[in-house]
Specification:
Elements lengths: L7 H8 L5 H11 L1 H10 L7 E5 L5 H9 L5 E6 L2 H12 L7 E5 L12 E7 L8 H11 E11 L8 H18 L3 E4 L1 H11 L16 H8 L2 E14 L2 H11 L1 H9 L2 H20 L3 E14 L7
Parallel strand pairs: 1-2, 1-4, 2-3, 4-5, 6-8
Antiparallel strand pairs: 5-8, 7-8
Helix pairs in contact: 2-10, 3-4, 6-9, 8-11, 10-11, 10-12
Length: about 300
């Protein structure tokens, strides 16, 4: 049953994770764990903190946060995907400090939590799933104590005019050369383009915001946050097999998940075969299957005195 105030598109997005929680967790442990550590470092999570993890998924950030906490402190991870939360709970139950972790099905837009409940709010790659980021930022501000810390990470290229941006521009030259010669395929762009061409736009109703279209610093300031700062971190991974290349894209890409969920089984099978065949051909030429994973981390503070 839909809770009051929850967004239909939010539930559509959560439903698109059904059936991929195991793969999502496996890939997140491999690719997102370094960024989760960086996020918690940026938020300066310490032993006595009360922490809220927004969009916890399978608990990659929440479980790392719990390991930093002293007995009596707590991290609350929230998500609206029951399957993802079930995976997170199973992982948490195996930990010695399981009593420091609470995992709840909650919509961040309508947090049913008292004001000034947490010392830290963190969120890794949840922003682009939120239909109303401004409302989410207002709720995160409300549940933070005065002086509390926010750290939000979202997929992004390096900041313009930064040294990392110059390096990335040079890397793209090589990537273009290799792609034109059939020696590189990049996830998830390859399957997103192929699914759009083979399956079309019918049935794809994802209404969430793309991070590039969301001005996170402006949203944070509008919600009342101060002391904003940002940092960027990116990684390049080489995938081992054509099958892994397919599975990662069908797991991580929202647009692909939605198209596949609505497609006929034969169409999905043909799309998988075409993806695997293309990836195998690249490897046979000595090329690579690559996945770039990067985040811009924005940190901010709730002021110690009321606004106005």
């Amino acid at each position: 049953m839909k809770h009051a105030g929850q967004h239909h598109s939010d539930f559509e997005d959560a439903a698109s994770y059904d059936g991929v929680a195991e793969a999502f967790d496996r890939f997140s442990e491999r690719f997102s764990s370094p960024l989760a550590r960086r996020l918690l470092d940026a938020a300066r999570v310490g032993p006595s903190d009360r922490v809220l993890d927004v969009g916890t998924g399978t608990g990659v950030v929440a479980l790392q946060a719990a390991a930093r906490l002293a007995p009596g402190s707590r991290v609350v991870g929230i998500d609206i995907s029951e399957e993802m939360l079930a995976t997170a709970r199973a992982k948490a139950a195996r930990l010695a400090h399981a009593d420091r972790i609470e995992l709840r099905r909650v919509d961040v837009h309508t947090l049913d939590m008292p004001d000034a409940t947490f010392d830290v709010v963190v969120s890794l790659f949840a922003l682009h799933h939120l239909p109303d980021p401004a409302a989410a930022f207002r709720q995160m501000y409300r549940v933070l104590c005065p002086g509390g810390r926010l750290a939000v990470a979202f997929g992004s290229g390096p900041p313009l005019l930064s040294g990392a941006a110059a390096v990335r521009a040079w890397e793209r030259v090589g990537e273009t050369w290799r792609r034109r010669r059939g020696r590189e395929l990049a996830a998830p762009a390859f399957l997103e383009d192929l699914a759009r061409r083979r399956l079309g736009d019918a049935g794809s109703h994802h209404a969430a915001h793309h991070p590039a279209s969301v001005n996170v610093p402006a949203l944070a300031r509008a919600a009342g946050f101060e002391g904003l700062a940002s940092s960027w971190e990116g990684h390049r991974f080489v995938l081992d097999t054509p099958e892994e290349f397919w599975e990662l894209q069908r797991t991580y890409s929202t647009s692909v998940r939605e198209r596949l969920r609505r497609a006929d089984v034969p169409d999905v099978r043909r799309l998988r075969d075409e993806t695997v065949d293309a990836a195998r051909a690249v490897q046979q030429r000595g090329g690579k299957l690559v996945y770039r994973h990067a985040a811009l981390i924005v940190t901010a503070l709730r002021p110690t005195s009321p606004r106005g």
